[in-house]
Write a structure and sequence with these properties.
Largest sheet: 5 strands, antiparallel
Structural class: mainly beta
CATH class: Mainly Beta
Oligomer: single chain
Shape: globular
Strand order of the largest sheet: 2-8-4-5-7
Number of helices: 1
Strand content: 35-45%
Order of helices and strands: EEEEEEEHEE
CATH architecture: Sandwich
Number of domains: 1
Number of strands: 9
Length: 135
């Protein structure tokens, strides 16, 4: 049985302060061990494309906290390598913590999304949706 933890992000101005939004807590899903399978970000309808370059960008970082310890499990930077964020188009966020993908995610673990601007940054409209898929 799978579960999706979904959170909606507030707006962030280009070059704005770093912000962290709680996405949700892992529920009990058909057992005590779940596995992180996929993380996506979908910008709302009508949002201008978040196009960036090597010095002016935003990093979207997904963290998992257990017993007070936060580990980065996925991240995406809107630079040349990471690409743009386009309205209504799900963007995969690379799972960067192999042990989280390969091992269990426990009920009660908290997922969050941290947005960090670099240089002049990139504006993100309110309503971007982050989904963390577990199975």
């Amino acid at each position: 049985m799978s579960a999706i933890i979904r959170g909606t992000l507030p707006a962030q101005t280009a070059g704005g302060a770093t912000s962290t939004t709680n996405l949700g807590t892992v529920p009990y899903v058909g057992g005590t061990n779940n596995h992180l399978r996929k993380v996506t970000l979908t910008a709302p309808v009508g949002m201008s494309t978040a196009t960036a370059n090597a010095s002016d960008n935003v990093t979207v970082e997904i963290g998992r906290t257990r017993a007070g310890t936060r580990v980065v499990v996925a991240s995406l930077t809107t630079d040349v390598a990471g690409g743009s964020i386009v309205a209504s188009t799900p963007k995969s966020i690379t799972v960067t913590e192999a042990t989280v993908a390969a091992s269990s995610v426990k009920p009660g673990d908290l997922f969050d999304c941290k947005l960090t601007q670099a240089g002049s940054g990139v504006a993100l409209a309110a309503g971007c949706i982050v989904e963390v898929e577990l199975d």
